[in-house]
Design brief:
single chain; alpha/beta; D-Maltodextrin-Binding Protein, domain 2; 2 domains; five-stranded mixed β-sheet; 11 helices; 10 strands
Amino acid sequence: MVAGIQDRRASSRWWRGAAVIAVSGALVLSGCTKNEDTTGPTKETTAAKAAKVDDIANTVPEDIKSSGKLIVGVNVPYTPNEFKDSSGKIIGFDVDLMNAIASTLGLTAEYREADFSKIIPSITGGTFNVGMSSFTDTKERENTVDFVTYFSAGSLWAKPKGSDVDPSNACGKKVAVQSTTVQETDELPAKSKACTDAGKPAITIVKFDGQDQATNAVILGQADAMSADSPVTLYAIKQSNGKLEQAGQIFDSAPYGWPVAKGSPLAASLQKALEHLIETGDYKTIASNWGVEAGMIDKPVINGATS
């Protein structure tokens, strides 16, 4: 898993951390993560079955339209965006949203698994029509593909409900993280150094191999808070049965986007479809089902990288 995480982060300021959360019942610590999660929503969000909109569907490139399929390259797991349930079906926020996009375009999404690093080359090579794996839209990647933005992700803290933890002033606190994430390598060391430079106690960084363990450490009182990518934290809060709450706001945000071939008119089709789902409220319904509504955007753009 670590090697995969490093591959995913190599070309982006914002690192996609592969974390599978298993938070339910007594929320006991587990020894390893799996490529599945049966604790969250296990059925497709109703809004994912969107109706076809002819005016938008007619903008789809003819070769894709005639096939009736939208070939989507995906890499799992990344709970809650894309992961497998106990039956092996790929589910998640990204999946429900892409299904709704495809339906709006009069297409059926066909998901094909691939290594994360091979998805963009497979798009430029014509194997996939679009990528869907929580890609951060970056200036570097825009040199190779075009992106349609659909979400905003950053870092976000969670704390035990009712506790007093401030992410901007956490000196002396114990903060749980998944090892090798940007929170462990960059964010917390910088915040801890600011504490010690000011003559205050350092932040104790409590590292775990899996995000499920980091989450459970907070619930079990072994850490004062946790820091992770915002979709991961939001989903952990949703699955904690009221034991966790958000601490502070999302920071260092950057857009997630769907990569398509450079210059492809499919980008405009995806953008129009998402604008439609935002207007109908289906976008919000899907995001709320997975507990990630804090990352919703108001207007999708083509190539909206900030760095």
